User: Fold these one by one.
Assistant:
Number 1:
Amino acid sequence: MAETTLETPVETHRPRRIKWGAIGDHTVLILGALLMMIPPLLALTTASHDAVTIHREGLQLTLGDNLGKNFHAAMFEKGGFTQTVDGTLMLMNSFILGIGFAMGKIIISMMAAYAIVYFRLRFATLAFWVIFTTLLLPLEVRILPSYEAIQKLGLTNTYTGLIVPLIASATGTFFFRQFFMSVPEELAEAARIDGAGPWKFFVDILVPLSRTMIAAIFIIMFVFGWNQYLWPTLITTDESFFTLVRGIKQIVLSYTDSQIPEHGQALALAIVAMIPPVAIVVFFQNWFVKGLTESDK
Amino acid sequence: MAQVSLEGIRKVYPNGFQAVQTTSFTIQDGEFVVLVGPSGCGKSTLLRMIAGLEEITEGELKIGDRVVNDVDPADRDIAMVFQNYALYPHMTVRKNIGYGLKNRGTPASEIAAKVEDAARMLNLTEYLDRKPAQLSGGQRQRVAMGRAVVRDPALFLFDEPLSNLDAKLRNQMRIEIKALQRRLGTTAVYVTHDQVEAMTMADRIIVLNAGRIEQIGTPSEIYHNPASTFVASFMGAPPMNLIRAEVDQKQVKINGYDALMVASEAFSGPITMGIRPEDVELDAQGQVKFHVDILEELGAHRLLHGRIDDQPFSVMIGKEDTAHTGETRIKLKPEALRLFDKDTGLRL
Amino acid sequence: MKRAGFDNIWLPVALLLPQLMIIAIFFYWPAGWALQSSFYLQDPFGFGSTFVGGENYTSLVGNDQYKRVAGFTIIYSVLVTFFSLAIALLLAVKADKVIRGAKTYRTLLMWVYAIAPPVAGFMGILFFDQSTGPLTKFFQMFGWDFKLGVDYNATATAMVIVAVWKQIPVNFIFFLSGLQSIPRSVREATMIDNRSATGRFWQVTFPLLAPTAFFLLIINITYALFDTFGIIDALMKGEPGNNPMTLVYKVYLDGFRGNDLGGSSAQSVILMVLVLLLTVFQFRLVERRIHYT
Ligand SMILES: Nc1ncnc2c1ncn2[C@@H]1O[C@H](COP(=O)(O)OP(=O)(O)OP(=O)(O)O)[C@@H](O)[C@H]1O
Ligand SMILES: [Mg+2]
């Protein structure tokens, strides 16, 4: 060992130093990954035990044999206060909220951004400011008056009341505006010379060109919609409109209520609430990351 | 096919900047006109007004017999090739070329046939089903050309279509575009800031400077009889030599001591004198002293850069001629001498 | 606007109309209404209201509970922002360095982004469970009788930990993409100029990341202020009692549980001003970023 070091000091020394650094890097990353992975994993393993075990011993490291039973109960047994809602219905409501919000947002904001960027409008600047002021105030800040507005319109416990007010912010419009501005000017000019009117240009050229952007925005908005909590909590009091995330509140309450400690079921429902947004983010992570990092530039 | 005429056309941008001063000229049917000038002189603005992409502030534009000031670009019967090609990135070459026809309601079978024809003409047949991203620069350029020719327009507009290509491809495409335009006989307006392109392609050149036309003429007129010092120094590489001189009793003198040939007009006083480097010869008996600083070897010929007194001056000599740095004497061809006003720069 | 915009009039109006209508009904109307009712005292039973001028605001300033909430919000925001940024930066720097498994690490470190804050809060309840929670036991090892929902400091600690955990992925994604957009040539130049890796990081990489970090700073403050509502609500298990809470939570609490419309509206308006300031700050930053790149 000493001999080789003497003969070729550079060759043996260098790789070893780099290797140590790399081991350090990997250690930090593995610790980080564990930090992020452990809580949901423990939730999953714990969800496979029966209620009594969980109540007495807390989080479980091993897989028990009640996984199927708990998930089945969570998804198909009616629960809540009025016994009207099961996990399947909440799952459906979550999809309605996530997809409805994402689609509504994309359609409405693309149209608005197109109007602002591609038309000679005298009031374009005004429209721009009217729309972009909404970036200033998240829904949480104006939650009470927004709720009152929905109530006056009789939209509580409706999907419209659930979805549309969430769309009332300019994040999507801002994003599409940025993207449209980066599309070369000459493309619209070439299209005009090719005889494409504003509508044709939008449908034939701009929308297909925005495909990846639309996908990215869809993912971000779907996750955002799916994970809404405060607004659904206020707007939906009828349990048949509950989303999974909204239902978490009920789960938490039931968890603290020692009368019916169905912890396994509660955890199962929480896991169901995580799976769709997590799956979409993981599977489409390249689009997602691109959309996230570019939308805010 | 059409004649294009501009009458008193002017452009003021919304921010108040006047990009094109009042301008009038007529482009004949089938003519290839090149707009040339330094960056920012208003070439694109002028072209875009003809295309209908930019509003005309003042004046009248006719394509054929029709006043088109208020006609939509799509209805002007024009086609345009952009510097960055502006191909639709998500469409195949076939769709790109056929898109304009499709928008005009041309039947699908006819579109297919026309696209095939255009592709054959431009050697694009094997690329028809590719997307623009899968093509080389030159091929993209051809697709842009294809998009223009397929519609068989009355007028081609080109905005620096070759400036994104490398030098060799540029030469080749230059010849192809010119040949294509000849064959089709379509009127064309071509914008460039490359004076070699202007010289080689144009039937007529329009030299623009700061939103104003400096000169309109055939390449030969522009080259040999520049209307101003601006044109003289902009067109031709190397540019025309411009030096201070004086006319005294019909004699042109450089710095007072070297009496030269007779000036044709009856004026006197300080002027700017111009002469192209190839119209100067080394001659031990020459009238003018020339100090050579650098000898530039160009293969077919050589350039000598130096000074007449303190004024920069260049001389072009054949590859057989001998030359060396240092003091020498030169002879100026009297008939090649051009005289300009020393203040306005206009031809005297 | 584009150079050669279309001249059509009705199409853009039609295109803008849906967005403008939604904004008018669900943004401007409520916001205006909040501003208005912040100057009124609402009868608790909903029978009319009286104009009280700035009284709702002045009574907030003198309110000890409000001051306490504001104080907690500040500390909470600072801690959440600092720790989530610091941990994410460390992980991003390492993830940018490793060659093997980079993609896997990225996935593992970012997927928590998709978990809803109240779900994260719910998992927090399990980890901080009074009798069985592993983190409760961990703190007990140091002699801290950790009682979630009972002990103010314990609940606050749990809130910060869960909020940090939930925010690491966003910061990680931005830092990583910021690092990856540093041109290769710049990195190579630093390799030649500076022998120490730590030196390289602080003298070159970090300054180049500064715009991203500034931007994330705003994002994180906004997150701590507003988006952690679900975490806070879950961790106090529906029992505000003596528990720590943020300003937004108090707006909700006073407005919906306390039926103090005027007070809640005044709090909303104060928050609006706060966000406004943050956004103005952010816009100036974004502008500068655009100029530089
Ligand atoms: N939309 C606009 N608003 C105001 N000024 C403009 C606008 N577009 C161009 N200009 C100005 O008008 C002048 C002419 O511009 P133009 O694009 O016609 O130049 P160009 O001759 O084509 O130059 P280049 O060779 O660089 O393409 C420039 O000084 C430019 O700054
Ligand atoms: Mg130009």
Number 2:
Amino acid sequence: MLANMLREAWRAMAANKLRTFLTMLGLVIGVGAVVLMLAIGQGAQTLVKEAVATMGSNLFIVLSGGTTTGGARSGSGTAPTLTLSDAQAIEELPSVAAVAPTQNGTAQLVYGASNWNSSVIGVTPSYLLVREWRLVRGQPFTDTDVRTVARVAIIGQTVARELFGSEDPVDKTIRIRNSPYVVMGVLGAKGQSFDGRDQDDTVLIPFSTAQRKLYGTSFPDSVRFMMVKAVSEDAMDRTEEGITTLLRERHRIPPGGENDFTVRNLSAAADVQAQTTRVMSIMLGAVASISLVVGGIGIMNIMLVSVTERTREIGIRMAIGARQRDILLQFLLESVIVSVVGCLIGVVLGVGGAALVSQTTEMMVVVTGAAILLSFAVAAAVGIFFGFYPARKAAGLKPIEALRYQ
Amino acid sequence: MKAAGHAAALIRVEGLHKQYETDAGPQPVLRGVDLRIDAGEFIAVMGPSGSGKSTFMNILGCLDVPTSGRYLLDGHDTSRMSADQLAQLRNRFIGFVFQGFNLLPRATLLDNVALPMLYAGRPTQERAARAQELLARVGLERYGQYLPSRISGGQQQRVAIARSLANRPKLLLADEPTGNLDTATSHDIMQLIGALNREEGTTVVLVTHETDIAHFAKRIIHFVDGKVDSDEEVGIAGQHAP
Ligand SMILES: Nc1ncnc2c1ncn2[C@@H]1O[C@H](COP(=O)(O)OP(=O)(O)OP(=O)(O)O)[C@@H](O)[C@H]1O
Ligand SMILES: [Mg+2]
């Protein structure tokens, strides 16, 4: 019975190929859009998730300079207000796990005939702890290296690849701004950060070396930027308060006076970002779903026309014994087939479109099985939902009236 | 008139009225039809255009319902049946042959003939075998895979007859089955229907405007103005029978 009905549905659709195609088109576009949009949303979410995972957890950044009412930081260019001893004092707070002051910049790297421009960051050994980064080769540098202002470096995967190719970088000497540095270790791969930077395109050197030898600051032992890791998520609020109180005390800021530093909860910001991308991907999917509904209305429209056109056929079928449910099923089957086939084509287009987007743009797109399954289910549901009314209309015809219809 | 007897009444119609609601108000078409048809009869219905023959046939075929009056088919009161029950009754009990053939244009001849069996839920094998057998019976066994548009009107009507027989109906209703055919072809079709009546005892009611066609039947009922005007036995000798 079902095989027969499928064959008949096929015949009915084949009899009017252009129309069948146009009917499908709405759904094809709808499903394609949903698959593509979900892929884009999922891509954004994956990026953020990776960025969160490689950022480190329970993080604050402490910046030198206060926050003006406009939100911009004041005092950049002037002497930094934070010092290394501030960093040490913060580290002593009970809720703080580690503090990592950094000195950021970019520099030219040379090894043999290769050269590469990369971000070179001066850090203390606790930086790896704070970011939860691991080495895949070699050793991290130590406090002794910081104290002795040693020319040593840890390099990221991108730097290792660009300078060394397949060679082992450990114990090799590279030149940073023409000074020799010994590579002590290589960091594991981490991918992109929130702002889309390649986190593997990084060189870490001792903080003191960066300040005094590489970048040459006029304010030794001052710090513009440090990262602070709290011992746990629960300790975040306490830590923020602790840092603020401590720094105000150390900087002798009178009650009511403005902070000359800024504390930002990075993990909270990351949560917001993750939430934002999640909402964005839901929105994208929702907007695309509207086209599914539009496609469904297209199906309903054509099915209604089809029922009217085939009224006589319906009458003949009823005369020779088709029950209402036979007619209902016949038309329902047609709209479901149209939707499912349209959906299949749409999925192919959506996946193809996603591949195209990821090839031609920087955007990350991730097609998931769940997204395909979801759009498939929705399309089938749309077919049934919008096919039902015309099918019921067909099934509800009076035999004699249908038969007499010209 | 037929002698009143109760045993073999296939159709009993009592006080049948049908009126259509038109823009010009209700228009009565059947105005009190009483009739009894026994199993195995071969009846021709005649009468002027507009006298209500088709309306009557549609009610007999359970395609339409009377405005008032009773219609008992094989003892069952059709007015108490649901749409699906009526559909099943048409499917198992009644075969239809229409003036316009009414084959499904997109289905092959075999599929057309097999369709009533599909709705009866017969298994695939049986459907295919019987459809082939029925096509052979009307002399079209070689055309099974053709679409209706590729064969002549007379051949289409043969296919329609084959289809009407699919579920071995007790009652065959034919509203002007030869109305679209030439005389020679009409007689072929009538031979086929007559043979059915004789050999299988299928009750046949057919509507025709042509006297020679009507004389294939054994009883002729005349409709005038929505009423039975005359009802007589004819041609028992069967002068048209082969
Ligand atoms: N659906 C309808 N609505 C309104 N009037 C109708 C309808 N069907 C039939 N009639 C009218 O009922 C009358 C009888 O129609 P019917 O088809 O039964 O006649 P008939 O005897 O079969 O005629 P013919 O020999 O021309 O086929 C006609 O006057 C027709 O106009
Ligand atoms: Mg008529």
